[in-house]
Amino acid sequence: MAEETNIILANRTDAQGTIEIVPEVLEVILGIAAVQVEGVYQMRGTLTNSINQWFGRENRGKGVNLTVEDDKLIADVYVYLNYGVSVPKVALAMQNSLQEQLLYMTDLTLSEVNVHVVGVIPEKADRIAPEDLFKDDDETEDDE
């Protein structure tokens, strides 16, 4: 049954047989390409992804859902973005990058790349040293 879900690459004249790709492999390719786009903080994962990551196993395809409808590939990408980036620019860059990367690696074309922004992650604030916690900003060296 698993063979029915595999994606068969177009028969080429130089091929000596058929080439099949499991959709999960395409999700990994798209996930890696999405994380490399500037402005993307991380991909959305599930509880299972988080548990696996604690044990050192990373799922690079997390946050990507690939569907095949009428011989068309549609990718849904769920991402967290860095605060302060232009959402339309990052989404457009992701769409272009994912289409190019998949075409380059597999000769497959994506008919749609739907970018779902799940959240925005603010920059981390600088840590305050415990000795400076109750220090007055008005104090100068002359007052001591």
From TrEMBL:
Belongs to the asp23 family. Pfam families: Asp23. It comes from the Bacteria. This is Alkaline shock protein.
